[in-house]
Amino acid sequence: MAEIMVIRALFNAGEYEQLSHENTQTLRFKSDMLSELNGLPGADNLTLFISPSQILFRKLILPNAGYKITNQSIAWLAEESMIADSESLHWTVLAHSKEAVHVAGINIAELEKIMLPLTAAGLQITSVLPNGLHLPYEENCWSAEKDNEGWLVRFNEYQLAHIDEAWFIHLINEHAPETIITSELLPTAFDSIKSIDGQHCYDIATMSHINLLSGALKPKPPARRVSKKLSLILWSALGLALLCFFSLKALTIGQLSNQAHEINARIQTTWQQYFPNDKHNNNYKFYLNQKIKDSYPDAMTQLSHLHAAIKLSPGIRIVSMDYNLRKRSFDLEVQADSLSALDVLMRNSEADFMFTQRTDDTAPGVYHLRSEKHD
């Protein structure tokens, strides 16, 4: 099992205690003395106990059994029971069931302030726990322990506090449970006291599943040094991989360039076949669209428009038709049952043609129509 170092941050800022196995020895350090611990066994695997007064404990009822538990969703559930902004805290799940979740919230800035002297001294913190988890827990009981700064109290399995003596006396007098578990002399009279030895902080550090460094605060695994031989092999493999990559890239670019030249040559040959007098050698799409635009409306388009106009004009029959490609105009000879039928044709076709008419004196009812140049 990996060596572990256990440090407890005291409530007074800037002071820390190093805890040994079974609490047989406790060493106190100022923050500027922590560098003495660097290099000792467990310096890269440190568990830090912090005061529960800096942690917000909550039991939250879940809206439904499938409720997704995230830092954001916990903040939303906790918001109604808080005065401060719940989203400013980092939340850790201590335990959860289908109906409820026990969580602990801590201000990240405050946590980093506590951890900074340790990390600055070269110690690697892998776990942060609330102080008081070593106190025994029983249903309908409190457990308490006195220290130099007040009373450490465990109200239930996931509810801890560090309070001064006056506040502890008030809680005992007003809200006391059936039994208080403690080996200390309580500051006020209480009938039911039980003495049960709790666990040691060192044991809790090795066994607890709780870690306030969760989610985004979860520590990254320490980097391992690589031997020179393995480093040389890795760099050689990286160099070979880069050489292969750039060689393949250069080869691919060369092949694509040759293909592009071949395709461009074929397009230019095809272009000259259809447009022998056009000397453009690039941007064929633009010039093709320009030529289509210049030739609009073409003969087939105009013929479809003429067919539609005649179809809507009863009493009109085409006798003959001629198309002038250069002028893009029609010469029609039509037979009309009456002048009104001819007028209907003229109206139906005026959107696409500007016909002028003359009468054929040799053939009654036959008219010659010529379309002017279309806009």
TrEMBL record:
Chief localisation class: membrane
Domain of life: Bacteria
Matches recorded under SUPFAM superfamilies: Actin-like ATPase domain
Lipid bilayer topology: Single-pass membrane protein
Keyword flag Transmembrane: yes
Membership in a protein family: Belongs to the GSP L family.
Protein name: Type II secretion system protein GspL
Species, as recorded: Buttiauxella gaviniae
Lineage: Bacteria, Pseudomonadati, Pseudomonadota, Gammaproteobacteria, Enterobacterales
Gene that produces this protein: gspL
